[in-house]
Write a structure and sequence with these properties.
heterotrimer, A: 244 residues, alpha+beta, Arc Repressor Mutant, subunit A, 2 domains, four-stranded antiparallel sheet, three-stranded antiparallel sheet, 10 helices, 16% strand, B: 279 residues, mainly alpha, 4 strands, 53% helix, 8% strand
Chain lengths: 244, 279, 244
């Protein structure tokens, strides 16, 4: 047992406190009054008016001049000193505002409607919205198609050469890649689905399932999309594109 | 150990007690337990805590406990346990050393243990003071008063596997193919039926159909109908049918006041029409 | 064949040009990155670690270098960039304390029991309740631990791998941040106390000295807390949590 180990340790504690306190102390580099003004505005819970600042600052400080200088110091930086409604405050530069928002992705299961729509597009492509609705027996919402479009799994292919010239949908290469399909023909057929119990066994004998194809080029029944003399095109899709 | 000594004890309280000096302080609520009391007594020896005499300390503690007992101050059990233990150490320490060599080291060890515990507690007290003297947020240094905050927003990352798709496809197509398109007939009496029945009923109630008859009595009863059509529907459809026939001039219809029975009677035109239809 | 070669060469030239253009476009705008870093640190409510900063900064930013430059920029000013608990934050210069009485919080009066317990947990961690009681010579009341827990300064760490599997306590990053400590090894006098054997939780004769560390991960002697086959855990702590 050392003789006065408690005192020694206490001296160590004391030295540590002094050290840690000194570590934070820095030699003032700028005008003391400017430093104080900066700290006051930084720590303030709400914007401060010049009058209050004058009260807080040492007597005789030229607060207006100091404010002007501080505002100039922070011009073009990530934070700015701004004067709003007669009060002063620091705020992050407006152009950086959107960087302060961190967008994180959280995995979520696709909705039943989206899954059905995607499956129908995969098997029946090129397929129009009306045809998808016909197969599903329910309307397809724009949102559902948007989600699939955003995921990059489906695309607008062209326009069907029928009255109204509806847009046709098809799957993308990304779709194949995501679902680990070499080609679209890898999708299981009627008998496979039946064997897997995914098709109702009570289905009528004449129930037909298309053999999926995913032609890169437009089929004979399709026209290209960029068809400027079709006013609906602009109404219908340009707005949607902007949302994405 | 009693919790009575736990809370609301400040350093100041102990320091004040120490300032009172050599006299034994009997306000033992100022100490959290025997160890804290011993530490206080040791501090009063005014020597380095590493060099305190356990023997002397034991004596002080024992006399403290004794005076407390004399003053009938209730002492927690652990104070008395400590007193007994110190009395034992004291007796061993003052025994002549050369009497029994094997016993003495044990007493020394016990005394050293107590000394160590006192030193350790003292060190922790100093350390606590040291921590509290560090520059603290909100005391010596200040963080931003009204930070904008860094926000996070999550966007969904949609997921699906092939099985999901196949299952959705199978279910969707099965449902669509098997779906029965027969729309169930609504349980109401059609206007057409009501008209036919009203005409027939009017004809059957009287040969001279110019007598006023209550519409109510002309209504078919539910049992007469093939389906379970609710009465309200029969009544409503029949009234509308009656109004329609009145408009065509086949019947007359009247009601004397709100909620009073509605009466109908056939007109000549109606009778003619019926006759022509029959012939 | 030669045709093929020409094409290959042309493709190579093309790739080189694209490469160079990209590199020119990607020339990092240091000032812009510094501004963003500054804004992030200003806007943050809590100190931020470099990892989070890296995530929020444009890809390829040299965050360490930027932090160093920003810290230098603010040296000697009224506000400084400091490193506490492994994270970064802006705070006012300590010498301006007396001018910032406006925002000064009323000091939190802690009981002697709470102070001693805090010090024991800080210097001895991971430490069990029994060990705290051994140092203080009295029972540790639930209230004392609750106060420290509510302040966010201590936390339950795990369970000691000894009979009874007692819960171990340690300090939090919030504790370090509040007291301006970079790491737990910065605790004042820690080395001196250790050298003097005063951080030994056990009897002096068996001089096993655990080094007071605050590892985020459990030590070899600790088990994780969420141990469902330990009924005492629920009795002992779940009830307390509800009280808080």
């Amino acid at each position: 047992m050392s003789n006065n180990r408690v005192e020694k340790a206490a001296a160590g504690i004391e030295a540590g406190v002094v050290d840690l306190t000194e570590r934070l102390q820095q030699k003032p580099d700028i005008d003391q009054e400017l430093r104080l003004l900066e700290a006051l505005l930084f720590a303030a819970v709400e914007p401060i008016d010049s009058e209050t600042l004058r009260e807080r600052m040492p007597e005789g400080s030229d607060v207006s001049a100091l404010l002007a200088r501080l505002a100039r110091d922070y011009t073009g930086r990530g934070i700015n000193l701004v004067h709003v409604a007669g009060r002063w405050r620091f705020q992050t530069a407006p152009d950086l505002e959107h960087h302060l928002l961190d967008v994180k992705e959280s995995p979520r299961k696709l909705s039943r409607a989206a899954l059905e729509t995607l499956a129908i597009i995969a098997y029946h492509q090129p397929v129009t919205r009306a045809e998808i609705e016909d197969v599903r027996g329910v309307a397809v919402s724009r949102g559902t198609l948007d989600v699939l479009m955003e995921l990059g799994w489906i695309r607008l292919r062209g326009r069907r050469r029928t009255p109204g010239r509806p847009v046709t949908y098809g799957t993308t290469d990304e779709f194949l890649a995501h679902f680990n399909l070499e080609t679209i023909t890898d999708l299981p057929g009627r008998d496979d689905l039946k064997a897997a119990g995914l098709l109702d066994p009570r289905l009528p004998k004449d129930f037909e399932m298309p053999s999926p194809v995913m032609p890169d080029d437009l089929t004979d029944e399709e026209d290209p999309l960029d068809d400027v003399d079709e006013p609906e095109f602009f109404e219908d899709f340009l707005g949607d594109d902007e949302e994405q | 150990m009693s919790e009575d000594f736990e809370e609301d004890v400040k350093f100041e309280a102990a320091d004040d007690a120490a300032d009172v000096g050599q006299g034994l302080i009997l306000d033992i609520s100022g100490y959290e337990g025997p160890l804290h009391l011993l530490l206080e007594l040791a501090r009063q020896q005014k020597v380095d805590i590493a060099r305190i005499s356990i023997l002397e300390l034991s004596e002080q503690y024992l006399s403290f406990i004794k005076s407390a007992q004399d003053l009938r101050i209730e002492l927690a059990a652990d104070y008395l346990v400590m007193a007994a233990w110190l009395a034992y150490i004291k007796s061993r320490l003052i025994l002549p050393r050369d009497e029994d060599e094997t016993v003495m080291p044990e007493a020394d060890e016990l005394a050293a243990h107590l000394a160590f515990r006192l030193q350790r507690l003292e060190a922790m007290r100093r350390a606590a003071e040291g921590i509290m003297r560090l520059p603290k947020i909100g005391q010596q240094v200040f963080v931003r008063g009204n930070p904008e905050g860094l926000r996070s927003r999550t966007t969904p990352l949609w997921q699906a596997n092939l099985f999901d798709i196949l299952q959705a496809y199978g279910t969707s197509r099965s449902k669509a193919a098997i779906r029965n398109h027969k729309v169930p007939k609504p349980l109401v009496m059609s206007l057409e039926e009501a008209r036919t029945r009203l005409r027939r009923a009017l004809k059957s109630v009287s040969v001279d159909s110019s007598d006023w008859t209550a519409l109510e009595s002309l209504l078919p009863i539910t049992e007469e109908l093939p389906e379970d059509i609710p009465k309200t529907s029969i009544k409503a459809s029949s009234l509308v049918a009656g109004l329609e026939l009145a408009k065509l001039g086949e019947i007359e219809i009247r009601q004397t006041g709100t909620f009073t029975p509605i009466f109908v009677r056939g007109t000549e035109q109606g009778a003619r029409k019926q006759e022509s239809e029959v012939s």
